[in-house]
Amino acid sequence: MVVVSSTFSVPAEGVLFQTPSTKLFVNDQELGTATLYITEHNVIWGGGVNPSGGAAPTISLLYPSISLHAIQKDPSPALYMVLNYELRLPELNQGSGDTEQNEQDDDDDDEFDADNQPITQLRFVPPNESDLNGMYAAMSQGQTLHPDPDDEVDEDAYMDGEEFDDGDEQFEDAEEELAADGGAVAAERLRALRLAANGAHDDSEDAEADQE
C-alpha cells in the first residue's frame, strides 16, 4: 500500500534511519527534496519542497508494496526501489496511456503478462553518498520485519516415510473400490501411480542407506 498525503508529521517511534535533504525521483522525474525516514513499520518521505519551491507531498510506503530495494550508482548514487504499484501523482508529467492499447488489454484480461503489470521506480538521492549503506541496511531490516507471505514454505507439503505408507493404503483402497464398480482401466492406472510412487520412495531410502 502507498499513501500520498498533503500533510506530514515526524514518525514518533521505530525510526531505523533518516536522511534529510533527500531528493526523490519517481520514474526519473524529480518530485522534490525532503527527509527520508526508514522505520520499522513503513518508509516515509515528507516535510519537503518540490522543484518549484512549493510544498511536496508526503509519500508513505508499506513494506509489502516494495518488491525490490538496492543501491544504485548511475545516473547518481541513490537508494533504488521498485513498487508493485503504479504511483500516479498530479505533480508529475504522467501520460494517460494509449487508448487503443488499453482496449486491447481489456480484451486480454484472462492472460497474465508480468511485463505489463504496473510498477513504479523510485530513487532516493541523499546529500551524502556515505549514507547509502545505512539506508540500505535499514531497508533490509525493515523488510525482514515484514516478510512476503508468498516466500513462506509450507512444511506440511512435504511427506515423510510414515505418511507415504498411509498414502499407499489409501491407493489400495481406491483401487479395490474402482475394480468393484467395474472401473478396471481406472483401477489399473491408479495401481501404476501407486507403484511409481513406491519406487521413487524406495530409491530415496536406498540412497540414504548408501550414504550411511
Molecular structure report:
The structure is a single chain. With 212 residues, this protein is of the alpha+beta class. The chain contains 4 helices and 8 strands, in the order E-E-E-E-E-E-E-H-E-H-H-H. It has an 8-stranded antiparallel sheet. Strand 3 and strand 4 (42-49) form a beta hairpin. The longest helix is centred in the last third of the chain and has 28 residues, at 184-211. The chain starts with a strand and ends with a helix. The model is unreliable at 97-109 (pLDDT under 50).
In short:
This is Methylosome subunit pICln. The chain starts with a strand and ends with a helix. The chain has about 210 residues and is an alpha+beta fold.
Number of helices: 4
Uncertain residue segments: 97-109
Rg over C-alpha atoms, rounded to the nearest angstrom: 27 Å
How is the largest sheet built, in terms of strand order?
1-5-4-3-2-8-7-6
Largest sheet composition? 8 strands, antiparallel
Helices and strands, in order, run as EEEEEEEHEHHH
Into which percent range does the helicity of residues fall?
25-40%
